[in-house]
Every structure is written in structure tokens, then in C-alpha cells.
Amino acid sequence: MRRTEARGGIRLRVYAGRRRRRRSPAALRLVVLGLLAALVLAGTARDDAAPAAGTAAGTAPVMLRVGLATDLESVTLCCDRRVVVEAGAKPFHLERPLRVTPAGALRGRATYRLQVAALKDEQQARQIAAYLRRETGELADVVFDADRDLYRVRWGRFPHRDAAAEARGRLAVLGVEEAWVVGEGGALEGAALRLEQGGRKREIEGRWLTILAPPDVGIPFARRRYRTRLLIHVNDRGRLNVINELSIEDYLRGVVPREMGPELYDKIEALKAQSVAARTFTVRNLGEFREEGYDICSTPRCQVYGGMDVEHPLSDQAVRATAGQVLLYDGEPVETLYSATCGGHTENVEVVFPLKRGPHLRGVPCLEAGVFKLAGDMAAGTPFATGLSRRLLPTLPGTPAQVLAARLEHLALLAGLRVPHDELASLRRREVRRYLLSVLDMALDPRFLADGGELQRLVAQPPASWGDDDRRFAVYLARSRLLAEPRDAELSEAEADDLLLQLSLHLGVLRRERAVYLAHDERQLELRRDGRAQHLLRPPSLATFRRQGDRLVAGTLELMAGDPLELYWQGDDLLAIVLPNEPSPVHLGSRNARGVWQEVRTLAQMRSSVQARYPGFPFEDLQILSRGVSGRVGKLRLLGSDGRSLLVEGLAVRWTLDLPDTWFEVERRPGPSWRFRGRGWGHGVGLCQSGTYGMAARGASYRDILAHYYTGVELGRIRVGAGEVGAR
Fold this sequence. Notes:
Layout: E1 2-7, E2 10-16, E3 35-40, E4 63-72, E5 75-77, E6 80-86, E7 92-94, E8 98-107, E9 111-119, H1 122-136, E10 140-145, E11 150-158, H2 161-166, H3 168-172, E12 180-184, E13 187-197, E14 200-205, E15 208-212, E16 219-221, E17 224-226, E18 229-234, E19 240-247, H4 248-253, H5 256-259, H6 268-284, E20 296-297, H7 313-321, E21 325-329, E22 332-333, E23 338-339, H8 349-352, E24 372-374, H9 384-392, H10 400-414, H11 429-439, H12 452-460, H13 468-479, H14 493-506, E25 511-520, E26 524-529, E27 532-537, E28 543-548, E29 551-554, E30 557-559, E31 564-570, E32 573-579, E33 596-602, H15 603-613, E34 619-627, E35 633-640, E36 645-649, H16 651-657, E37 663-669, E38 673-679, E39 687-688, H17 689-697, H18 702-709, E40 714-717
Parallel strand pairs: 4-20, 23-39, 28-32
Antiparallel strand pairs: 1-2, 2-3, 4-19, 5-8, 6-7, 6-15, 8-13, 9-11, 9-12, 10-11, 13-14, 15-18, 16-17, 18-19, 21-22, 21-40, 24-30, 25-26, 25-31, 26-27, 28-29, 31-32, 33-38, 34-35, 35-36, 37-38
Helix pairs in contact: 6-7, 6-17, 6-18, 9-14, 10-14, 12-13
């Protein structure tokens, strides 16, 4: 179900996805995922004070299950009397060590496969399966999950789980780094759990055991504590999986500080951006491990989750301030990849992950690249209103009154107004007001020039006929000296320039536009406008203004990717660029200590690295075949001493050569040896955490940060419907 409705300037887009109910014998009937709703946040309106998703009357928090451990022969828990174990009709407290073992008999033999993707797009899923069959010669097919409306791509068949896990290396050389083991076939009969505590033994039927704790009391497991519920599940192999069931918001409290430590990344807007990215990843991947009884894993394969022990007040604040917010593209939660450092530019997703596609995962310049200077052609220190108004409306010789009259007539002509024959006798405020009504009578509401008190009342209660531009201009006039007493006092040149600038904006002769700086060179500017990256030719004459204290003055701009700009246009001509904020200096320090690196490898070392992925291949040299927008290597050819060659693509380049990143230059040296000089550390796709910190330090909001790293996304909100659904 999807609907869109307008609420003021905000569009509400609702997306609903349901899952069938599967309940635990413990009778815990919890809402896991009801309605996924996207509240599209328009413009720059703040929403941080909105209530958390699921806190309104009649709703419940969005729940999920996190796999903490799998295939255990036994589980021992100890000890907190506030923790309750629900064991059939006789719950008991966890006062003493509790040992849990599985019971039941296996019928038939399960086979094990590697699942490499779960996609909404059937065509893409089948293309990936065909690619894997062609490249490996092994079975690869698509399994449709009607419950989740997903196409799951699975590869290979193995008799044992360990054999399937070992086979991941065969897929890794094809650039498939995210495969996990799933079981098919086989059955467990008479599933039960044996409990032993203080010499007492009991057995409960079914696959599930639930351990509960009060909201702020953690359940102990493996030297950590976890909120809300711990579930012990007998899987299809007759082993135990340990699962933490809790709300998404509480889960994120244990994820954000592990993915972006608040002690190092101590800017709240950066942590908010990470919170939204992590929440979006979670919502998108709910149910990925359903066969194992949980939604998402707790390792880097998914997101690193540390439970209660890693929670931090600053990251808690970030999670709370963005509660329920997710990133959407075409109304669906997006894949939110992120890495610690990108070296100065992120990469298009298909360059690093050849099997992935995503219009929101486009490479963009990053603040890690450092400061770039953009100099205009106006004398440094020229006040903004003076510089821009005189560039638009040049001055001519004459008395001050004649100069202002000529410039006002010029403005009227540019606005398409007919200029009456009149004269401006002086710069006295009373006379300037009269002359304005004479020259601009067809464009100005006479009420703009009412007495100061009357104008203040109009500002407080504007006429219904006034639009936003009218209101802004009325506020300007109310604050200016044009209507101030004494009325016979004269306007200064600076006040006249400011009046002309504001009139130019009000009449549409001058157009102001917001943009985001990405990069520039001698020929062009790369900016993000209306959510899209665009290249503009640099005009031969351009003014640049920056903030100096409480003023804007002409000067050289020191820009970093992501900085907000204001552009001033006359028609199609760009007249000026303004950096409206006085950005803080950014010292990334150890946050991008790995941003630049160098490695030297001998022939023996290179052969060892290559043969770890391609056993027996006699490495001799390499050729770079293609690069992405950041400069990262997309395709590489390995050359063997026996004349063979191998094509390596995407992230497999990094693993095959054992390098920190795929953004590198390589030089063959005598010996032979190879020197690699590179940037970035990781995959470099999506959000860059050190760049996120830098943008926050320069004053960017988390919305600005997310819009910078994820192209064309919308910020939405998840909510829970009244229907009861679940993963059990």
C-alpha cells in the first residue's frame, strides 16, 4: 500500500510491507515489522523534536532479532535474579548458572548453500545467478520468498556447513564478499530444550526459550549484557542459536558507538548521520537470516553490535534525535554502505561491487581531500551589498541623488517596468520613499511603505495576498532605515546599495539559489543543485563573498566538499558565489590516519597474495584496465609467467593484492618489486565516516551529510501499524 498526501509543505508517503505471523511457544506476540512509512521531510524544516517512532498512543516499537551466536552445542547463562527465564508454565529467575542443550532427532540430511543476495528486482537476481553459473560452473539459482517479496540468489550445494563456509573464497575472487551459509532440506523432529540449574533438570517442548529482563537491566551472555529479551533457538541442524530480541532504537544504541565511536567522532550531527544510515541498513535487511530465526547478524557482515556495554550518552542522543528516520529512494529503504575513510572521493558502487547497482551510491568528492581556494575578481573586503548591487546596477557620474535615481530606473527597466518621468530630489528617506512608489508603482504594494508601526503590524499579520517574497521584503523594510525616524535624514551609500540589492531580489531581477560545493578547476565548478551533481562553466567575471564576523565581504573562498553555497544569478549569468557561514577549521587527525598509504611488495610477496585467491597461478605482473570516478581500480589483469592471465574486478582487487583500498597507483621497480601508493581504507562507497565528522565540524547538519553521500535520497520515517506480524 502506498499513498501520498500534502501537509503544508511536507509530503507524507506511506509504504506498507507485511510479513506472516510465526509465533513462539513462549506466547510472545510482538510486532516485528508492520507498516514502513516514509514521512518525507521537505526543505530544511527541523524535525529533531518529533516523538520517536512507536511512542505514540496505540503503537509499539519496531522490533527485530539480532543473531549473537549460532550452532552452539550448549549455552550457559549466569547470573542475575532480576532476569526471568520463561520455561513453559514455570518461569524462574536466573539466580544461578543455567545450562541449555538441544534435544530432538534429525530426519534426512540438510544441504548447505551460499546466499549472495536478496533483491526486489527479479531480473537483477537472475542476472547475478547466471553470472555465477557461467563463472564457476556450479549451481546458482533464484528462490522467491513470497513472505518478504524478495528474490534470494543462492549458489552451490554442500554436505556440511563448514564446506559451504570454506567455499566463500571461490566467490570472493569474483567480487562477492557478502555471502552467508543457509540450509535447505532436512528436518528436526521432536525439537525440545533441556535446562539444568542447580542440579535440577527439566525439558521443555519446542524450539524456543525466552529470557526476559526489565528495560534497563541487561541479560548476561558471553561477557556482555543485552537489552529486553534473549532467545535460544534450536535450529534445523539441531544446534543452538542465541538471539537478542529488542527494538530497533535500542539495537542502534549498541551499533552506532561500535561503527563510529563517540569518543573519537564527537560531533553530534555526524553521529546522527551514522544513526540514520545504520537504521536504514537494519530496516532494509530485516529477515535476511529468517531461516536461522533472526533478522540480522551482529558482526561486520551486517553491522557490528555490542549490546548494552558499548552504549554512550552522545550516540544515545543521536539515535534518539533521529528516532525512526530512514533513507528512501523511490519510496524504498536504500542500501546504506559506509566506510571509515575514502581518501577524498567516494566511488560508484558498481566499480567496487560489480554485482550491485544503486542510483544513490554515486561517487562524490569528500572533505578528506582538503581545502580548495576559489578566488573572485572583486577587490577584497568589498561589502556584499555594495559589490553585488554595483555589479548588477553600475554607478554613473552625478550627485548622490542622481546616481540612485539612475540605478533605480535601470532596475525598473531590467524588471520590465515602464519608467515614468520623475526626479529624485535628495536621499532623504521621505523623498526616497516617494520616488520608489513613483518608479515602481506597478511592482510594489504601497503598503510596503506605510508608517513603521503599520508595517510592523503587517509583518505580524501579513495580508492573504502576500506571498513569501512579499513577506521577506516587508521584514527587510521594517528592519531597514528607510522608514526610520527622522524621516528627513539621508540614506548613506551603503544603505542605498542594500536597498537596491533587496529590491533586485524582490523584483526577480536577481535570483538567489542554494547549492553545495563539490569541486572546481580552472574551467568549471562542480556543484550539487536540486539534489543532483552538475558542472557549470566558470564565468569570465565572478565575485566571491565570505563571512567575516557578522558581515559578508569579497574575498577568496576556502572550500571543502559539502560546504553550502549561495549562488546569485541574473538570468543565465552567474554573478556571485557566497559562502554564507564562517566554516570552522577541520583537523581530522587520527580519524583519517589511514587516508594515505604506501606499500612495497616483492615478487614472492605478490605471488603469495595472488595464490591465496588463485591457487597455483604464477604471478608475473599486472595491468590496470579501468578506473572509477574516484580513481579506484575497477578492473585489473594479472599476468602469469606461463602466458595465462586473469581478470579481477571490484573489491576482489583489494583482497587479491592485499591492499588497504583499490585507489592506488603502482610502479614496477627493479628486483622485481611493486610500489603501491594509495588513498582510502576500505571500499570507499557511500558514507565516509571521517568526512562525515569533518562536515559536521564545519557546521553541516546530518541531513546535509546524508544528502551529500547518498545521491537523490529522501529522509523518511518508519512507523508501526496496528496489525500483529512477526518473524516467528
